[in-house]
Each structure stands twice: as C-alpha cells, then as structure tokens.
Amino acid sequence: MGAPGIYHEGSRAVQDRAGVRDLADHVGRAVGDGIKPVAAAFLELQPLLVLGAAAPDTGRVWASPLAGRPGFVRATGPHRMSVSGGLRPGDPLTRALATDGTPVATIALDPRTRRRMRLNGQLRPTEAGFAVAADRVFANCPKYIQRRESYELLPERAAGTPTRGRELTDAQRTFVASADTFFLATAHDGHAEVSHRGGLPGFVRTDSAREVSWQDYAGNAMFLTLGNLAVDPRAGLLFLDWTTGTTLQMTGEGRTEFTADGERRVRFTVSEVIETPGAVPLRWSEPEPSPANPPVTP
C-alpha cells in the first residue's frame, strides 16, 4: 500500500508541523493489507482485543474491549480476521458489530512481550461473532507498553451493571490519574483508528470532571490518530483496570495543542462516560514500567 495511500490531509498537516514527513513516508511503507504468518501466529496467542469504531446510531466514537481464550481472535485468510464471541450486553458498539460494512479498527496488545498489532477494515457479522476484511495491517514499536508477565482467564467473572454519566466522578478521576495505559479511538471519512497510549501513572490528567489531557509522546511519526483529530474531533477513550477487569469508556472530542518548544498535548472533552465493573475476565500480573516512559511533568 505504501505511505501515499494511508495518510490524509490531517496526518500530513501534523507530520509537517513536527517536521517528520520523510520519516512518516519511510515508516508507512511497512503498512499493508495482508496478514503475514508471523502476525497470524501473534493474533492466536492473544486474550484481549480492543475495537474502535463510530456507533452507527449516534455517530459517537468509542473504544471497547473483547476478551477470551487465546484463539478467539485468528486470521482466517490472508486478508481476514475472525473473532468469536462479542461485546458485553449494552456496550455502545454492540450495534456496530451487527452492522455489515462498519469501518472498524482493532489493536491486539501483548503486555507479556510488549508487542502490538493493528488491523483495520470493514466488519462483517458472522454466526460466531464477526470478521474484519483487512485494508490496513501493521505493527508498532514496544514504546510505552508496560510489561505484565502473565494473566489469568476468569470465566466466572461476570460484568456488573454499567453506570453512565455526562462527566467523571471523583472516583473515576482517581482511576484515570492512576492509569499507566489507555486506548484511543478516532475516525475520519469512513475509516477508524485505535491506538495505545502508555506512561507512568499521572501521565493522564483530569483537568476537570469534563476534561482529560495527556502529553503526546514521540512515536512512529505516522500521526494517524492526531491526523484524524485534526479533521474530525470525535474520539473514544478506554481505561482498563488490569486486575479487576473494570472498564471506563468515554466518548467526546479531542484537540491537539502545540507548544512553542515542539511538544504536543491532547485535550479531550467528555460527552458520555460508561463504567462497567468486571467487564473483562482477565487478571494480569503487576506491571513493569516501560523504560521509554518519560517522567511525568506537572
């Protein structure tokens, strides 16, 4: 596929502002539409997949987790990924998984190896769950991924009743402030992206009950996510308690602020919040921080 086919005007604008267009073109050449054998083998080992999409009924963008015994996600062809099972009842993307042709983005992240793989495409509902016809497949570097050596699958863990709100409670603000990882979904012009963000606890700030912000650390120079936000502010955030399985999902709008010293900060305004106790039946071991994590600045 190559760089010209994956970058739109938003990504190009951010790349140019950061002075990394040539690097982005180089990195972009690694993006394809096929699932290579090494990627297929990686997928079959994963107990967690994060999905990003716009809900077809509201247009709001969300990020949602899917979990299961390894093998629930697998490549069933050179351009097709299949997923058995579905989202918890009431998840905001449930209708998206039942709608043929929904543009979706997925990320499989393995804390054990600090590897991650992204696959985007068009969704097709199936009897067992859903499949994605891939149009963009690529891996990212291990930067900012906290290592977790092992996990337990807890099939007896049942999701609690979700609580919904229009702003973050004090307890939810504490949850966000203590997080070392979250997932960020965006969308633009019939395509979706979902990416990982990581850092030391405190790297995400809750500036108010309606605003969350974080410094955008140096990455792969592609700026697919910030490029989407530059032209379409819709976004969804997913925070996960890696021990209890509780999830905190937010939808709203994001914007990127550029400082005179070249740093970037993303500010996210909350429209809706969903907290679900025990939503993910996985319990991971304690984290080992990534050596790439910068110090948290006030």
Automatic annotation (TrEMBL):
Q: The Pyridoxamine 5'-phosphate oxidase N-terminal domain covers which part of the protein? A: 168-276
* Region spans: Disordered: 279-298
Gene3D superfamilies membership? Electron Transport, Fmn-binding Protein, Chain A
Superkingdom of source: Bacteria
Listed Pro residues bias regions: 288-298
Q: Which InterPro entries match?
A: Pyridox_Oxase_N, Split_barrel_FMN-bd
Entry-linked Pfam families: PNPOx_N
Protein's name according to its UniProt entry = Pyridoxamine 5-phosphate oxidase
Instruction: Write down the species.
Output: Streptomyces longwoodensis
